[in-house]
Amino acid sequence: MRLLLRLEVLEAKVEGGMVFDLVNDFAEMLSHVPSGHHSGVRIALIQQALRQDIHFIARHPTALLQCLWNSAWWYDCQEYSRHYEALPTQWGSASDKLCDLLVAWRRDKDSVTPGFRWARATRPPRARLGSATAAVLRGHLFGVTGVALSPDDRLVSGSKDGSVVVWDLNFGKRLRAFDCGSSVECVSFTPDGSLVLCGMFDGNVRVLDRATETQLFEFRAHEKGVTCISVSPDGMLAVTGSEDGTVSVWDILTGTRMAELSGHYAGVAGVAFVPCHPEELIASASRDGTVRLWAYAAGGEEMRRTKVPRLWLTPEVSCISASPDGDWVAYGSTDSLVRVWNLETGSEPVVLRGHQDRVTSVFACHDGERVVSGSWDGTVRMWDLRSGAEVACLRGPDGFVTSVAAIRDGSKVVAAADDGSVHIWNVLPGAAEPVLRGHSSRVSSVSLTHDGSKAASGSWDGTVRVWDTGVGTEIATIQNHALVNCVAISPDAKQLVSGDDDGIKAWDISSQSRISSAHFSVRDAERPTTALAVSRDGKRLVSGGGLSALVVRVWEWGTWAELAVLQGHEKTITSVATTPNGDTVLSGSHDSTVRVWDVTTWNVRTVLRGHENWPRSVAISPDGMCAVSEAPGEALRMWDARTGQCLRTIEQVHDVQAIASGGSHYFQDLLVESAIVDASTGAVIAWLPCSLDNVCHAERKWVGSQGSSMFFYVLEGEDVIVHVN
C-alpha cells in the first residue's frame, strides 16, 4: 500500500505508459482496505484525482504532480473554505490530511528535479475531489452531442468534430474511435451493445460495428440533420427525428424505411420507442411545443398528443424518454421544466422543478421510478417520480449539458457537455456537494491589472467580479443588472468600467457601487458596447461597439470627458487596445480589418487587412510599432503598425498581449488542452488540461475562463525569466 503513496512509484508507472494500469492498481488495493479506513480514503481520493485527468496525464506524464496538486491538494487544505458557498459537514475530514501528502511530494520533486516548472492553480477545480464526480473524459475537439451506455459497461459519445468514441465506463479508457467525417448529432447502442447508430448533421445515419471497428453501412434518413435517434427494445428497428419535422422508422440491418410520421410543424428534438405497449407506440418531442404518440405499426397513425402550456410563447420540447414498462414518458422543455406524462391515465403531466435553464436531455431509469435530466444550467438532476423530489444534483460540466444516460441500477450517471467533455458520476442520493463561488453563466470578458495582482471578469449572469489572482478568491461582486459584454479594470484596481447593451458604466470597487459622476455620451446607435481597454498609465479609456454608428471613442479616466471620436469601420467594433500613454489606439471589427488610430489627430494611420474572420482580440506594443490580432479559426498575426505589412503568423495562439509586449512566455490553445510556451525557443514549459478563453497574463500569472468558471495559474519553479514591460 505504501508504494502507491510514493510519488516516484506513480511517476515511473505513468512515464512507462501505464496510467490506466495504475488506476486498476488503486482499485485492487481498495478492495483489501476495510470500508471507511483512513488509508482507504486517501487511496480512493488519489485514484479519483487520476481519473479526472487521466487522458491528459497519459499524453503528458511529466504533468502528474501538477494534476494531483491542482485537484488533491484542495481536498483538505486550509484555503478551500474561501472558495465554496456551502460545505458538507464531512468535507475534508480524512484523519491523515491529503494536502500534507501533496506538500511532501512537492518537496521530494524539488529535491530530485531542482527548478521543476509547473502551473499551480490558485483556485479549486470545478470537478471537486471527494464529490460525486468519478471521471472526466476529454478527447473530443468540439462539443459532445450525445452519449449512450451498453450492457457491458461501455460508453459511446458523439461530437460535432465528427468523431464517435467508445470508452470503458469503469476506468475511463478510450477503447476505439470512429471518424464519421461530419458533425455527429446523436448516438445510440443496440440493446446488446454490438452496434452504434449515429445520427448525422448531413441527414444520414451511420451504423458502426464495435467488434470489427468498421462502418457497416450508411443510409439517407432525412433531408435535414438527424437530431435524435432511438433503438427498439428488440434491436431490430430505429426511429429518427429531424430538423425537417419528420419522424422515420427504419430496419437497422437493411436501412429500409418502415414508416414516415408527419405532423410536427417544427424540428423534432427527441424520439423514443414506448416498450410493452399493445399499440406499438413511438413518442416524439418537437420544437412546436408538442409531444405526440404514434402507432408506427399501423401506418404511422397519430394516437395522442399533449402540449406544453403557453405563457407568452409556447416553450419548445427539447427531449423525451419512455419508461421501460411503457407507463409514462418524460420530456424536457425550454421553460426549464421536466414533465412526466402518464400514458395509462392520460392525466395532466406531473411537473418537476429545479433546473434554471433549458432542459436538453432526459433519461428514464430502468427501475421505472427515476428520471435523469440535463440542462443548459450545467447540472444533471435525478428525480424520484413517486414523490416528485430531486434525489441528486450533479455538477461538473463547464458549459451546457447536451445529453444524459444512466446504468441499469441508476448508481452511475453520464453526461455530455458542449465544452467537449464527458462526465461520469457516482450517484449518492441526498449527498450535498459544495458549490464553487463565482459566475453562474458564461464569462464574456476578463481584464487584468499590469502587475497581475487583480482581475475583473464580466459575465452573461449580469455581474462583474473582482478577483485576487494570488489566492483565486473574489474581492467584490458588482450587480450590473444586464448581460456584461466587456470589462476594464484600472491599474490601481480601485475602479472598473463595464460595457453592456445599454452602454458604459463606471464602478467603485471598494463600495461595489456605480460612480454617479460618470456619464458617457453613447448614442443609441453606438450600443451595445462590445469592447473596452484602459491605458497602462490609467488616464484613458477606449470603447467600441455599435450596430449602425460604428465609432471608437477615447475618454479621460476619472473625469470621463470625451477626448476623441474615431470613425471608419464598416461593421461593429469587436476589440480595442491602446499604447501605455493612450496616444495610439488599435481596433478590430466585424468588417475583418484592424485599424491603427492617432488619437491626437483623430485620423486612421493604417488599415491592417488579411483576416477572413473578425478580429476577436487585438494588442499593440508599448512603442506603438507592432500590432497583434487574432480571429476565430485563424492564426495570430503580427503587423508593422506603420506600413500594415503582416510580419508573422503563429498558429493556435490567442495570447495577443504576450506577443505584443515581447514577453518571455505566451499561452497556446490546442482545443482540448493548453500550454505555456517559452517565446524564445518555442518549447512548452507547462501543459494545462483545458482550453481557456479570455486569457490574460502578467509576470508568472495566467488568468482565463472556460464557460462560467475562472482559472488562475502561477508558474512555479526556479530559473523562470520573466519579461516585465
Task: Give a quick set of tags describing it.
44% strand, 7 helices, four-stranded antiparallel beta sheet, 55 strands, 725 residues, mainly beta
Please characterize this protein's 3D structure.
With 725 residues, the chain is mainly β. The chain has 7 helices and 55 strands. Strand 12 (237-242) and strand 13 form a beta hairpin. The longest helix has 15 residues, at 38-52. The protein starts with 6 loop residues before the first helix and ends in a 9-residue tail after the last strand.
Topology:
Blueprint: H1 7-15, H2 19-30, H3 38-52, H4 54-59, H5 64-72, H6 98-112, E1 118-121, E2 133-138, E3 144-149, E4 154-159, E5 163-168, E6 174-179, E7 184-189, E8 195-200, E9 204-209, E10 214-220, E11 226-231, E12 237-242, E13 247-251, E14 257-261, E15 268-274, E16 281-286, E17 290-295, E18 301-307, E19 317-322, E20 328-333, E21 338-342, E22 350-352, E23 359-364, E24 370-375, E25 379-384, E26 389-395, E27 401-406, E28 412-417, E29 421-426, E30 443-448, E31 454-459, E32 463-468, E33 473-479, E34 484-489, E35 495-500, E36 503-508, E37 513-514, E38 529-534, E39 540-545, E40 551-556, E41 562-567, E42 573-578, E43 584-589, E44 593-598, E45 603-609, E46 617-620, E47 626-630, E48 636-640, E49 646-650, H7 656-661, E50 665-669, E51 674-678, E52 684-688, E53 693-698, E54 701-706, E55 709-716
Antiparallel strand pairs: 1-55, 2-29, 3-4, 4-5, 5-6, 7-8, 8-9, 9-10, 11-12, 12-13, 13-14, 15-16, 16-17, 17-18, 19-20, 20-21, 21-22, 23-24, 24-25, 25-26, 27-28, 28-29, 30-31, 31-32, 32-33, 34-35, 35-36, 36-37, 38-39, 39-40, 40-41, 42-43, 43-44, 44-45, 46-47, 47-48, 48-49, 50-51, 51-52, 53-54, ...
